[in-house]
Structures
1.
Amino acid sequence: MPDFADTRVSLAGQGSLIGVALTASASGACVALVAGIQVTVRVPVGLTIAAQQSMLILRRGSTYWAISVLTAAPVIPPTVPPPADTPPASDPAPAPKPVTTTGTLVCPAVTTSTWRDGHWRTDLGSSTSADTYQGRYSGSGYGRMSGFAFYGSKPRSIAGATVTKATVKLRRLTSGDYGKRSPTLRLVSQSTRPGSFPTLNETASGPALGVQGHVSPSETSFTLPTSWGQAMVDGSRGGLCMTVSSDDPYMRLAGRSSWSAAWTLTLYWRRSS
């Protein structure tokens, strides 16, 4: 009958080996089972081995050295892909869309007046709601006239808004001939009537109007340059004027006393936030 020596396997020349400690390390050694063979394994200082731990063993000659304790393979959880409708975490959220507000601001004239010969005319009734004249009546010994409308602070109540359209209501009354004539419009710096002649700026040709009751049209809602309305809102301009550098065309447009809607300014605006 064969003895235990018949079952031994030579471990010479196998390089690194794996063994299971049968005893805990003590006094720099432990007993381990390597390929079915029970051997004594030297344990370096600083390495502690418990019974039943697997270890990596290096053989040098007839001496076995434990070089490390083997741990179980790490468990790596599977990567779960994000749902199809979930954007990548690195994608920033889109910026919110700007909110655009639109509106209409109606600005009645606070004053309508006519200037002639170095002062505001007072012979037309109230000098702050008088009809507005342009030019000079043929044969008149008086000087040329200029009519004004001032709008106070109301246009500036929407400061910061962008003006998209500006209109003014005009009505021509009897004076001069009946044919269609166009006032020359000017943008005025002042928003209230000054004691002296106002400061005139930009110019534009007004609508061709006939005299009320004789030639149509005599009344209109005339579209001003958009930049004029913007200047009113921004505060750099405050009024409108009808004036010419010659006597003609001589014409009269209604002031507040003749027509409550006279020279009413309407501003169409938008604002984004």
Note: Helices lie at 226-234.
2.
Amino acid sequence: MSRTKATFLPPVMEARRWLEGVDFSDRPLINVSQAAPVDPPPQQLRQAIADVALNVPDAHLYGPVLGLPALKSELATQWSAAYQGSITADQVGITSGCNQAFSATISMLCDQDDEVILPIPYYFNHRMWLDMQGVKTVPLQTGPDMLPDPAYAGELITPRTRAIALVTPNNPCGVEYPAELVRAFYNLCQDRGIALILDETYRDFDSRTGAPHDLFADPNWADTLIHLYSFSKAYRLTGHRVGAMVSSVARLEEAEKFLDTVAICPNQIGQYAALWGMQNLGAWVSGERDEILDRRAAIAEGFPTLEQQGWKLRGLGAYFAYLEHPFAMDSDDLARELVKQAGILVLPGTMFTPDGDADGKRQIRIAFANVDRAGITELFTRLAGLNL
């Protein structure tokens, strides 16, 4: 069997196929399936991109495999301040999106039949890459609050375990992992000699003020922590594919082998765009965060209507609301029915959980990054009106 046949079809693309042949003329589709902004970058950033394309000849050539030095330096400086720690530019690698950062991390850490622990529900692309690398996903069940237990995780570690991978704010659940929980997982990984992969793709939309954890304050953080980030969400650069991997110099040297083979270098123009955004769009990103937090509040305020019908809000934050439905059908069947009966496209919990997982059959993910307050009200109205 080929490596690609070892895993499932891309969930977002599979869900889009459910739209074929459905007429939405009398009721516009509410698409809450994908966690990515659909609007282009702000005008000033688009102008900066145009200026780079016209006036920076090197932006059209191969660049350093681990990224633009100025962007690496800027990220190291800003992250050191934000996390009250110490990060140097040579501990930063720029990647072609955060998915590639995760892929490079696993390729650098793992061999065939090694193991990585993922809290359930997991981000499906993480599971897909592990499948295709022949790395075993070890599921870590979460509690009613959708938070993983480090003590339980410790029981799952074997001689083949190479890492625990956390996503906070979480995809798909939205929950923000408390700083003390992140620290407990870090301590566990440090004690057991494995890596902690911490994906903070949605850090810019965390509802908390200040640093969400203190891991970078540990002088020895690079021995254990591998931090992943995406510029796509904060600056609407999804199509430019720019992410980051913050780790030890030795681990980045290993990751460089993977990156050079797969893409040679990250998108040069996209890197200049990310740099310009970091240096100039702080206030704009803050406004984007305020809007997302307002949509989060709108879901919390409107949810009692659904709760009266048996729905449960299992997680909420960043771009996501994670719901438990009250119907006598599996969530993948429900998701297809929602397209036809309510004009709503969501992803079922079965796309974020192992085959046969009972919880996944009861859950759906709402990605509300592109739905404003009025759209959220309409979403709840349609869900409340279901007759299944």
Note: The chain has a mean pLDDT of 95.
